[in-house]
Write a structure and sequence with these properties.
With about 200 residues, this protein is an all-alpha fold. It contains eleven helices and two strands, in the order H-H-E-E-H-H-H-H-H-H-H-H-H.
Length: about 200
């Protein structure tokens, strides 16, 4: 919680005290969701199958960019300092610097891309899906470059090992996120949670 407050202090200087408290609460909740869903995984070496991307797709589509980006960055920071928040209860810098660390480092970029496309007012569903597809390409690209560098394989080999087996599952995640995001956003509004007014 202290770590969240420090981050908010750095990026939320213009927030009122009440908005800061609300912001900290929201970031904590969505970071916790990311930590939980990361543990719903299947150990498929070298890259485990997890639901982390599904959560990123949804929170980046539903939440303001400031909240989703902060939540994802905090998740990585928590893992970097050793908390077992990464898939299969792993944590520490060694995970980030390992063969699959590039995919984790891509998470903030994914949230940024999806958030920017989701903020487009017209044809929201279309641009939301485009944003998720581009974000996934960013994740695949950065993660595969990192994997190829660490494992001393070609970029093509990295794609065959780490990307091709997941394309169908990740496509299903995009479809599920695209269907769920409007419903979740509506539910938040029904509970009088209107992020646009606060952040």
């Amino acid at each position: 919680m202290l770590l969240v407050y420090v981050i908010i202090s750095l990026i939320g200087e213009n927030m009122s005290k009440m908005n800061k408290i609300n912001f900290i609460s929201q970031v904590s909740i969505y970071t916790a969701l990311l930590c939980i869903f990361a543990q719903i995984s299947i150990p498929t070496p070298p890259v485990p199958f997890t639901l982390s991307l599904l959560v990123i797709f949804i929170i980046a589509s539903v939440l303001p960019l400031k909240i989703s980006l902060t939540s994802v960055c905090l998740y990585i920071i928590l893992g970097a300092i050793g908390l077992p928040v990464f898939s299969m209860l792993r944590g520490g810098v060694s995970v980030l610097l390992g063969p699959t660390g590039g995919y984790i480092f891509a998470y903030p970029l994914m949230a940024l891309v999806i958030g920017l496309f989701s903020s487009i007012k017209r044809y929201k569903i279309f641009f939301n899906i485009v944003g998720m597809i581009l974000a996934l390409i960013v994740c695949y690209g950065l993660g595969s470059v990192w994997f190829s560098f660490i494992m001393l394989v070609t970029f093509k080999e990295a794609l065959l090992i780490c990307v091709v087996p997941f394309i169908v599952f990740d496509t299903l995640k995009i479809i599920l996120a695209a269907l769920a995001s409007p419903l979740i956003k509506k539910a938040l509004r029904d509970f009088s949670i209107n992020y646009e007014d606060e952040f």
